[in-house]
Amino acid sequence: MYHAKAYSAASATSPLGSTTITRRDPTDHDVQIEILFCGICHSDLHAVRNEWSNIMATTYPIVPGHEIVGRVTKTGPAVTRFKSGDLAAVGCMVDSDGTCPECRAGLEQFCPNMTLTFNSSDKHLGGVTYGGYSDSIVVDQKFVLRVPSNLKLAGAAPLLCAGITTYSPMRHWGVKKGKNVGVVGLGGLGHMAVKFAHALGAHVVVFTTSPSKKENALRLGADEVVVSRDANEMQKRAGSFDFILDAVSAEHDINAYIQLLRRDGNLTLVGAPAKPLAVGAFGLLFGRRSLSGSLIGGVAETQEMLDFCGAQNITADVEVIPVQKVNEAYERLLKSDVKYRFSIDMASLKSE
Ligand code: NAP
Ligand code: ZN
Predict the structure, then answer these.
(1) The domain 2-161+297-351: what is its CATH number?
(2) Segment holding 101, helix H or strand E
(3) Distance 165 CA to ligand 2 centre (A)
(4) Between β-strands 2-8 and 290-293, what pairing exists: parallel, antiparallel or unpaired?
(5) Per-residue pLDDT tens digits for 245-300
(6) Coil, strand, or helix at residue 242?
(7) Residues whose beta carbon lies within 6 Å of some atom of ligand 1
(8) What is the CATH number of domain 163-293?
């Protein structure tokens, strides 16, 4: 075991602050990574404030962060895929049982024994896993990804959650040229969804509550932008979408978007508001529309997404901050005031 620097919160109402945590020494199959950048996902905020207490209560202290890129500093003797000095990345998961049907299908995110990067039982050290707001992490090589060398690292970090969470459902639901695709909520996930839908050749319409994001949405690859509070603009688009991805972090009316689907159209929720959303039956009955959800993506698909980003030169638009600004960043996230992801420069942790 060794000590690592980290930022943690002691309770749902405490700010994050500097701390020291224990990490395991790399076992045979482990890779130790010096963390260079870690993105700030809205899930970090939900978890730090225990907003998902009914589904997965937070254990304190919590060290959040699951959009991790860095450099390999040490490898266990059985590690074949990485060596010291390689770029490496870690997303939302660090382990799974490897034997269940989900794991065998390459869908480790649905494994009943999956270990999340933070706030999951730590089978090595006891207690819970600690995430990427830290100077290093130790992860089984099966859950370590390769980062294409052409990608800027600060913007590559958010691909590990915001990227895969939006890429995976678009692949699943066949987003491609000729499809009319809506993206609801232009935050960290939403802006990646726009980039991917555009790169896959779809016609992309952004729905936002923030009129000020209009120009940026077009620059990111949207063909049209609708301010969702404008009922007239919403009505004009009724029955016209093949697929809508909803990446909103707070309570909102999803029926307004179900109405916009064509026959057999699908709305996939990736946003995870704490409170249940009300769904009217008739919006789904008429037009045989469907409503579904999606959770991050499997390891192989995450690597596929990273390679796609390498080939297309896609990264997140980031605002790089020192770790000392993380509490301020959370407040801004709650006001939808980020273009479009905060990425923590972990070198800032050295001064703590
Ligand atoms: P984010 O950057 O804060 O973006 C959320 C966006 O939602 C905002 O930018 C805003 O977009 C919109 N929004 C916020 N409050 C709203 C309200 N009251 N009514 C309508 N729209 C509102 O968050 P994120 O990091 O992209 O995460 C989004 C959600 O996805 C979170 O709940 C997160 O936990 C969840 N998530 C799920 C997965 C998964 O695997 N399914 C993975 C990662 C994250 P506009 O300003 O454009 O309206
Ligand atoms: Zn996330």
Answers:
(1) 3.90.180.10
(2) helix 101-104
(3) 8
(4) unpaired
(5) 999 999 999 999 999 999 999 999 999 999 999 999 999 999 999 999 999 999 99
(6) strand
(7) 41-43, 46, 161-162, 165, 185-190, 208-210, 213, 247-250, 252, 270-273, 294-296, 333, 336
(8) 3.40.50.720
